[in-house]
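lol so apparently i was supposed to do this last week
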Amino acid sequence: MDHFEYRDGQLMAEDVALADIAESVGTPVYVYSSATLKRHFRVFREAFAGVNPLICFAVKANSNQAVLKTLAREGAGADVVSLGELMRATNAGIPGERIVFSGVGKTEEEMEAALAAGIKQFSVESEAELEALNLVAGRVGKIAPVSIRVNPDVDAMTHAKISTGKSENKFGIAWTRADAVYARIKELPHVKAVAVNLHIGSQLTKLEPFREAFERVLGLVRDLRAKGHDIRHVDLGGGLGIPYDPEAATPPAPAAYGEMILEVMGDMDCDIILEPGRLIAGNAGVLLTRTIYVKTGENRTFYILDAAMNDLARPAMYDAYHGIVPVAEPAGSEKMTADFVGPVCESSDVFAKDRKTAPLEAGDLVAIKSAGAYGAVMASTYNSRPLVPEVLVDGERFAVIRKRQTLQELLSLDSVPSWLED
Ligand code: LLP
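anyway here it is w/ LLP bound
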């Protein structure tokens, strides 16, 4: 459930009319609902009744510091993958002991900063990284808490580009190697094994791949403990899907996911860390955009929007479905078929093809739904289009939480070398 609904003929974000935001901030603009963010976080937490998992929001899904702060106040930790994300999380008030650091290419600079922040866990993704982390920790006189990200070689049955748990993916260390790697941790003086972690992919719509992977990992935890490793927690990653397309199968509810995890965990005396991103932020945001032109082609109608693939890359990158709805509630039930496209010079700059929609006119506002995760964070300035702003709504109030980049700011990043000066 989200908080974007029609009221008196107007699409609202909580108690604010999206049309008012467009009027005041311009379009395109990302709009997030605080109530939805909080609700999703609570629903997810409540799915683990009786257990108190550490929920580390995957910052890559939405890294705006106001969004992070909203979640931090609910008790969220953070899953970060870069120094920038680590800084965003700490700026938002998330303490080091609630931060886990994933990613296949952590640099020494990132390791040092994370050690200084006292993070809970380095999710180590290769043997080379483990050796590097040991050296860095030794240099700064610390012991790095380590978890090996194991690759369980399980098919997540999701889009190939967001699948991470198969042996051909670059992520993690083969689970068959885990034993040897944990043995190596014991030999190294500046790292200490505290956990095992995994993440098999994103937008999963079935529980079975999760279950298969989790069972594999728990078997491993038992073996490691038997060998004297002090494994205190398991980090089960993120990946639970959200409903994007009302006509597609509905992904499992957080409650069913939680139940399955508690069942698999059984009597393992282990704390649980989870890293949801999309589930928390996805349906808490829309991309608000205006129709620039209506173009009637030979056999189709194009709605040309002022948002484009550089602002929301998901449809172009993953053929992702996003609902698109008019901001002014359609008066009648008339429907037609149209393509929603952006102005970028690429044939893939299409948000929706052959979409059934109420008829629109130039100037009409539309909301591209489910854009709160992997939306603004993946934006680029392709075609020299400035990054779009972000707005956070809370009840009747709203605030710009990232201002629109100006063309001046964008252009001033370039510099012309002396030999080209006139
Ligand atoms: N933990 C790790 C280690 C991850 O790599 C990811 C996502 C997550 C947690 C969060 O997964 P979530 O709960 O959001 O599914 N840009 C793509 C999604 C890439 C996900 C990458 N890793 C998209 O727009 O669909």
